[in-house]
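Complex record, two chains
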Amino acid sequence: MIGLSVLLLAFSGFTALCAAMTKHQLDLLGRRLSSRTSLQLRWGGGACLVAAFALAIADRGAAFGSVYWTGAIMIAALALTLLIPYRPQWARPAGLVGAGSAAMLLCAHIVLAWSGR
Amino acid sequence: MNGSLRQSMAWLHTWSGLLFGWVLFAMFLTGTASYFRPEITRWMEPETGQPANYETAITGAVAFLQQKAPNAASWNITLPDERQSVVRVAWRPEAKPGEPPRQRGGRGGRGRGMDATLDAATGQPVQPRETRGGEFFYRFHFQLHYVPVLYGRWLAGAFAMFMLVAIVSGVITHKRIFKDFFTFRPSKAAQRSWLDAHNVTAVLALPFHAMITYTGLVTLMNMYMPWPVMANYQDSQAYFDTLFPAGDEVKRSGVAAAMTPLPAVLEHASQTWSGGRPWIVTVNKPGDANSTIEVSRHSGDKLSYRNGSLTYSGVTGELLSKSPEPGAASTTGSVMYGLHMGRFAEPLLRWIYFLCSLAGCAMVATGLVLWTVKRRQQLPDPARPHLGFRLVEKLNIGTIAGVPAGMAAMLWANRLLPLGMANRSQWEIHAMFITWLAMILYACFRPAKQAWTETLAAAALMVALLPLVSAATTQRSLLSAAQQGDWAMVAFDLTLFALGGLIGFCAWKAARYAPRVSAKRVRLTEEAA
């Protein structure tokens, strides 16, 4: 479950980083963003990737966690890059859904761990 | 090969990629398959059962060995994990007087008739059809075939070194590596689209590609760069003895003693390792008062591939010694080996490894195609290309379609070859190379577009029909596996359908391919007319 959260967070992170690039904004969002919004997206995307890393380490330990995170970000980036030319309009909702699902999965995991105690 | 650094690197990248690309594609694809080596072996040995845990397996293995080889010098038991359904046992007879004492390493009794395959759950010998199984793809990808093993490893190592050169030169020459990070435009002109595809599959999975190539070379580093060992040790045997101390040879006392129950020993080992798993169990001088039991830890318990062993008394079951902690350099090498093998990966990570490795195959394939796409535009007469171009084009088609078709052909042969046939496992392997060669020859006799479409379509069918062939020729089918809860085999058949679909999709795209001719090209052609 945490593994899936890491993957989804990585996907959302990359979607944000991609949307922060002027090159992709027209495809993804249908319009250009201000440089301030782009900067926010860049920070937000980076934060998602860092959060994914922290989650992976917390769940699997430093060694397995960092290997898993590296794998997850590669797959997430590939998935996004294949999505953009074929269904660019899905990218933004996918990014938001990804972040939301990751949060929900994390909460579910915490609740289960707490109640199992 | 002149001009700026980027231009030099571009030249180096093109040539190291092109000259070695076809074999590298085969190495990459068979390596990709190797992440599911036990599953492929299980699929190719449908006579075996389902995976069972090691506690069950050890009881059956010991009972078999006690009945078969009670006076052996040593027993060797390779326990299954949750992915294997067999225990592999081997035994070594007592050395006759005058014979040299046993050598370190070697394969014990394996391959000389002193080994057996047992069902993990029942301990009964199983007689699976004669096949190399997934082991073949694994061995091929680092030692090739049809050449002596040592030469094969040298060749594969040379190819891998050029792969490393291609990766590094590719990164240096890719000026827009961050700007073009997410850039994939399949609907642009051919050269641009293929270059995008090559960039994307290479850059986005770059951590994997760099890791796999470098760690692959490291696992055979003592062969490729033997000079540090030669400079610091008497001989390589002294080096290995330092790295992996053997402990003293167990001497037979002549006093018979009952063996301690092994399940308890394994349980103790697992607890000592905080829940780790035993993998290989070696019993020295079974049935003797001096006998010892050496339990090696599963190589997937940690990132490091070599995780030490514990030695127990064979009579009392008490822990006698642990293998010494390896030093930092040794651990670094073992971790690199472990990263390459990915044995520690749980299913989700294992699929990530598999997909990244497939991306690596796509990287090599798109690179090879890109070469012809780019050169085709520069041909003075596109209808009559020069020999070098034709050679590359035929080899591209024959390899990119032929290697997957060949791997599928091996699985077809596994199902269709008569069970009692002589050299059956060798002929399964011949089927792979005959198919690959046939695809190359077919590509020589068809125009490029038809050749691509037809070979890819053939490969797609060969892969996708495998589950049906399996259902028709054996007891094992997708449905029967689902009924028995054998989800690994269900996933295997479904993956075959998916991979067949993927190749079929490529065939479909090839059939529809109508290259956009750039305006410059049209003008040149008109001027020439």
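Note: Chain A is about 90% helix and 0% strand.
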